[in-house]
């Protein structure tokens, strides 16, 4: 089959490799019909997440069931499904407590960048390095889906792939960032980052009846897109202080009720040790997170959706205490909310596919990564067709 294989930072190519096979009774093999490139994939692409052996990329994918393991009863060959990006067993303490990203069984060895043990047990993700379980991902013609009794969700016939593809990750992620703010309606939400995750946060804030949504980005073309799609207010980031002042002005001096960081840590990419695939995280910027802390009102919430490295610990806590800020963060627990979000899509309350700017063949995956990484050609979201 054809698959997008990670070889080294900056080197992801469409290769021909063996088809995946059922390895466990609760696996299915999925024939992938659509898959997307995520901002998280860029952390592997840039070397921010270390990976030394080749692996198939991709955690945002959907398709048609090709084969089922013996224990899979609720799915049959030919069913069309979307698959949440965390791999989770469904039965452990964390899965039973709506925290599938912390599944105790899917990633028994969770090793840190230098090979040291960071946590005893952490969850797994598709196509996202050995650190996250070493499972091949879905930027491929076929993918093995483990624990398929728990993850995949059937899709109604009337819905196109593009209408539901983002239920795998970015819509649940954006929605979670808003859910954490516990909005009652009428609030002001500031979303930092007008990429795919930020855009889904904006749509989710509107679903939660926010009165005002302010989006901040360094790229005017991305601000223009989300403003055209949703009517939100926008601020071009040139200087942190100015952004904070503008948010305060727009909120009667109080600050936003909820700030969402949909950008994350910005490493100094020149500090990548290519041989060991290790990034030095001591230098790098958390300026977006700091701006969120300054722009949020007293007693407000900051949701951290953008990724921060495990071994980064220079964060200043003073402002969190002084302002009584609630901080929420982490990989999105997709499984507990995906059915509710599918309902939002099916009822037409939200549209997800309007952020797609590039539709490419899987064969052009190298170009897809480059365009998305360098933010070229007006790129916001790339969707790949494995069969074109
Ligand atoms: P992206 O790279 O397309 O978007 C990031 C956006 O941030 C870009 O538009 C960029 O211009 C903007 N930006 C950069 N510096 C900025 C600044 N100083 N102020 C404002 N905006 C700035 O990626 P994405 O797909 O939207 O993902 C965003 C982040 O969310 C990534 O870190 C990704 O790994 C993470 N993510 C997390 C989860 C989760 O489960 N928590 C899921 C998916 C993605
Ligand atoms: Zn993703
Ligand atoms: Zn589990």
UniProtKB/TrEMBL annotation:
CDD domains: FDH_like_1. Residues 26-149 form the Alcohol dehydrogenase-like N-terminal domain. Keywords: Metal-binding, Oxidoreductase, Zinc. It holds the Pfam family ADH_zinc_N. InterPro entries: ADH-like_C, ADH-like_N, ADH_Zn_CS, GroES-like_sf, NAD(P)-bd_dom_sf. SUPFAM superfamilies: GroES-like, NAD(P)-binding Rossmann-fold domains. The keyword Membrane does not apply. Its cofactor is Zn(2+). GO terms for molecular function: oxidoreductase activity; zinc ion binding. Residues 196-265 form the Alcohol dehydrogenase-like C-terminal domain. The keyword Oxidoreductase applies. Belongs to the zinc-containing alcohol dehydrogenase family. This is Threonine dehydrogenase. It comes from Chryseobacterium oleae.
